Structure formats: C-alpha cells, structure tokens
Amino acid sequence: MTDTLSDWNLLTLVGADRPGIVSRVTRALYECGCNLGEASMIRLGGNFTIMLMVSSARPDAEILDALAPVAEELGLRIHLDPLSGGLHQHLMPNVQVRVTGADRAGIVADVTEILAEQGFNILELDSDVAGERERPVYIMNIQGYSDRTIEALADALVPMAARGVSVDVSPVDLMIG
Amino acid sequence: MAILDILKLPDPRLKQVSEPVETFDQALRDFIADLEETRLAGPGAVGIAAPQVAHFRRIVILDLSGRPKTPNHGHLVLINPEITHWEGFAMGREGCLSVPDYTGNVIRATQIRLKAQDADGVEHQYEMEGFEARAVQHELDHLDGLLFVDRVVSRRTDLYRRKVYK
Questions:
Q1: Binding of Fe cation: at which residues (chain B) (predicted)?
Q2: Contact A176 B159 (CB under 8 A)
C-alpha cells in the first residue's frame, strides 16, 4: 500500500520510561521521510506512552522497519494504524469537569455515563491517583463540549456527591486577544 | 479606516518590544480606528495590541462589552498601560489573532490594578478581575514581545490546585 503525503497514520507506542525515547523515535521517523502532526505523549505508571500522527509517502511496512531497531533497543511496543481525518480539526472545549474522591472502582464509568447522557463530548481527559498509598484519591479532569448549561450538567452530576465523589463543573472561557 | 495585516507566528517581529506613545495626535486616533477595525474583522477577539499589526507602540484595545455577565469596563483604549498590582492566579484557555488554529492554557493573575492613558493622554486607574484581567495581561505581553504560546502550561500543572477562580 502506498500512502500519499496527506494520509495520516496513528503511531502508538509504549515502553518502560527512560530518557531519549522521543528523540530516538522521532529521529528515525524523520530519517525515513515522515511528517509529524498532533501528538500526546505522557508517562503513565512508569511507562512512556506516545500517540502521534505520522504522515509519509512510504508504505507503512517501511516506517515500521525503520523504527524496529529503536524499538528493539529501547524495549518499545509500536503500532501504526491508518487514521481518517487530519490536521486543523480542533474542537474547542467549553466545559470543564473536575472530579475527586476516595479511589474506588467505577468512578470514571459513573461520571462519564452521566455526561454521555447529557450529550457531553469529551475532548480531553486526564486522571491520576494521588494521596497516600493506604488512602488513594482519584482525581480526574475532563474538558469537553456540551450544549447544556453548566447548571444542567452540575444537576445531572448531583448523584455523584452521594457516592462520595466531589464534582465541579465550570465553564472553559476562551479568551482571544 | 482600514483593516491592517496581522503578524502571525513565527514572524520574528512579534518578539519586538514596543515603545511608549509620546504624542497624542490625530495620527494616533486614526491608527486606533484602524486597529479597532482590524480587531473586529478577526474571529471574536476581545483585544488587540498595536505590535500585532507591526506598529510597535504601547497601544492596546480591549472590549468586553459583549460579555455582560463578566465584570468589565466596556470598550477601552489603553495607551502606555502598566500593571501596578497583581493578585491570585488561575489557569484559562487563550487564543490569539497572531496564532491561528491553536489554543492553550495559561496561568494569569486573577486581580490586577492597571494604570493607562486614554487616546487623549489622560491617565486612568482600573481595578480588573477574571476574564478582563486575563485579556489585559495577554495584550500587555504583546507590547513586551511575548505571545501566550510562551506561557502555555500543561493542564496537569493545575491538576491538584483545588481553589479555582470563577
């Protein structure tokens, strides 16, 4: 299969965190003629993870071959999948939902189910487990788009309080200057 | 009146520090009119700074009159503006006419006191908060050759900060 330059692939990568993963991987991609687009890279649980838009005129197999030595040396698992869509398709979040509570199974499912029922489109979600090891606290930060009012979303999330989860809904105000 | 060309990243002139306005004359008023027309031609900008149109003088226009629910001073022309007091901080999302198709999170003071002249050279003092304070800090950065992309932080930076200005 031959991709055209405007076709994007999504490269996903995970491996034990160490310095140099990004530089080695992106150097290999550059040297085999790839362009990079939007990316999310973050350390999760001691692993380094990458989701990266990659475009190239070369076939996927050649890109993976170019990455193979780096993956082998740094112990990285890498996938490359075709991606529909492309750059300049940003959606602007207008609502932020902050969630904290004693860590227990089901918080994410409970909160996001309520949001989904409200037609809330999650654009970004990051979460972490903080607190002491014996008393972990789950913290989740969601930004998304919704047609509903802040009050309507907050009302819908009221049942979470009874389950010991604190939820704060606030507007994301975009300031253009 | 004219719509002026907006400098866009990575134009190096956006890093230039602007000079104070010394003469309050018709030429200044004409420029302010053009700057305002340029602001209104952009996508929903509440503010614009002179260096964004390659005029390197300390001139800013701010207009939050379209946001009645947000505390604000309406339409302002700020000449030689200076922030004399900062308080609090909050993260908020910003975009910029000089940085199309990108928004990012920036930490700004939530309360400021501002000293600035108007188009006639008369000095005024303002107490500003929240969205308006953010807008002023964004525009004043332009006068010092800074863009919001120079101040963008990860949302994780704010993750554990529970008290948030609204």
A1: 96, 138, 142
A2: no
Buried b (16+ CB within 10 A) or exposed e, A62-88: ebeebbeebbeebebebebeeeeeeee
Main-chain dihedrals φ then ψ at residue A9, nearest 5 degrees = -115, 155
**Domains A8-83 and A95-170 fall in the same CATH topology:** yes
Nearest residue on chain B to A89, judged by CA atoms?
B101
Instruction: Classify A95-170 by CATH class.
Output: alpha beta
What is the ipTM score, two decimals? 0.90
In chain A, where are the structural domains located?
A: 8-83, 95-170
* Chain B (72-101) residues lying within 8 Å, Cβ to Cβ, of chain A: 92-97, 101
Q: Which residues of A touch B156 (CB under 8 A)?
A: 126, 128, 141
Q: Rounded to the nearest 10 degrees, what angle do helices A60-74 and A21-31 cross at?
A: 150
Residues of B in contact with A100 (CB under 8 A): 162
CATH topology of domain B12-158: Peptide Deformylase (3.90.45)
* B41 sits in which H/E element: helix B26-41
Alpha helices in A5-106 (DSSP H): 21-31, 60-74
A8-83: which CATH architecture?
A: 2-Layer Sandwich (3.30)
Three-state secondary-structure class, residue A166: strand
Quick check: B104 contacting A, CB < 8 Å? no
Q: Where along chain B do its domains lie?
A: 12-158
Place of tokens 């049942």: A159
- For the segment A99-148, what is each residue's pLDDT rounded down to a tens digit? 999 988 999 999 999 999 999 999 999 999 999 999 999 999 999 999 99
List, for residues A24-72, the tens digit of each pLDDT value.
Answer: 999 999 999 999 999 999 999 999 999 999 999 899 999 999 999 999 9
